[in-house]
Automatic annotation (TrEMBL):
Protein name (record): Phytanoyl-CoA dioxygenase family protein
InterPro entries (alphabetical): Phytyl_CoA_dOase-like (IPR008775)
Keywords: Dioxygenase, Iron, Metal-binding, Oxidoreductase
GO molecular function terms listed in the Swiss-Prot or TrEMBL record: dioxygenase activity
Entry-linked Pfam families: PhyH (PF05721)
Length: 290
């Protein structure tokens, strides 16, 4: 019997496995290391569903040829990128081959959490909400989402960064929830992070001036040593929570296995979201208390 996954996610059948509250030890680990790894956060059905629901967006063929590269940030000058904060748009790898566009998609962003019913349901689930409150957020709200494909052989590197460089607020509250939709290993470009690196200052900020201009501004000397980064190899369904000041990156994928992930970013609405962030007019999805 073939299963219609999209239907499954909207019927009464259980789409989410229900997760427990995190323990005091997990919370302490998060504040010590700047990240928290939660195994089996999502079921294989949830992962499969999200992987299926993304497919039509990859095939829609309307995507402009905008490359997403953290090496030179050239995408940042493009209106297609700047206006994607409340849209669902595809971005390409730097070394894409013209004849096979779908296989060269780097990521889909930045409002799946609001503009697609299934992604919205997963992103705003009580599991994510509970986690955000458990980690001390007072009024957590999702503002950005990305489906990252890291496709075989072409999946590019993401340079070392702190998420607060892109989603800045005073005080800094941005928190990333990164779900492995496929196993992530050293071979296919898993995340790397510097344990405890979130205790360093914010080193850069992507600043937007007006409608067209964005630039990366250096704020402080990098205090972190990238050699201290460790690979976060995880299985499908694992969630990695990332503190907004944690330096993290992922190398290119030179293997034959893809490394799909879904990342959502929340801020605390009690903090002031900086009005010179690249992301303006985001889709805000508040996470309810549960
Ligand atoms: O998935 C990746 O390779 C990078 C993701 C990332 O940097 C993020 O979600 O902040």
């Amino acid at each position: 019997m073939s299963v219609k996954l999209r239907d499954l996610s909207t019927t009464k059948q259980k789409f989410f496995q229900v997760n427990q509250q995190i323990s005091a030890k997990q919370k302490a680990d998060y504040f010590c290391d700047g990240y928290l790894i939660i195994k089996d956060f999502a079921s294989s059905l949830e992962c499969l569903t999200l992987k299926q629901v993304i497919q039509p967006y990859l095939k829609q063929g309307e995507a402009e040829d905008v490359i997403f590269s953290t090496q030179d940030q050239c995408h940042c000058e493009e209106q297609y990128f700047l206006e994607s904060g409340n849209q669902i748009r595809c971005f390409y790898e730097q070394n894409k081959r013209q004849e096979d566009k779908t296989r060269a998609i780097n990521k889909v962003g930045h409002a799946l959490h609001a503009q697609d019913a299934v992604f919205k349901r997963w992103s705003t689930s009580p599991n994510i909400a509970r986690l955000a409150y458990d980690l001390g957020m007072k009024q957590p709200a999702l503002i950005q989402s990305m489906y990252i494909l890291k496709q075989p052989f072409v999946g590019g590197a993401v340079t070392c960064h702190q998420d607060a460089a892109f989603l800045h607020s005073s005080p800094i509250t941005v928190t990333g929830f990164w779900l492995a939709l496929e196993d992530a290993s050293v071979e296919n470009g898993c995340l790397y992070a510097i344990p405890g690196g979130h205790q360093s200052e914010l080193s850069q900020r992507l600043i937007r001036r007006g409608n067209k201009k964005v630039h990366m501004q250096d704020l402080a000397e990098n205090e972190w040593n990238i050699k201290e980064a460790i690979p976060l190899e995880v299985k499908q369904g694992t969630l990695i929570v990332l503190h907004g000041l944690l330096p993290h990156y992922s190398p290119a994928n030179h293997s034959s296995a893809s490394r799909h992930a879904y990342a959502i970013h929340a801020v605390d609405l009690t903090s002031d979201f900086s009005n010179d962030n690249w992301l303006q007019d985001p889709c805000i999805e508040r996470l309810g208390h549960c």
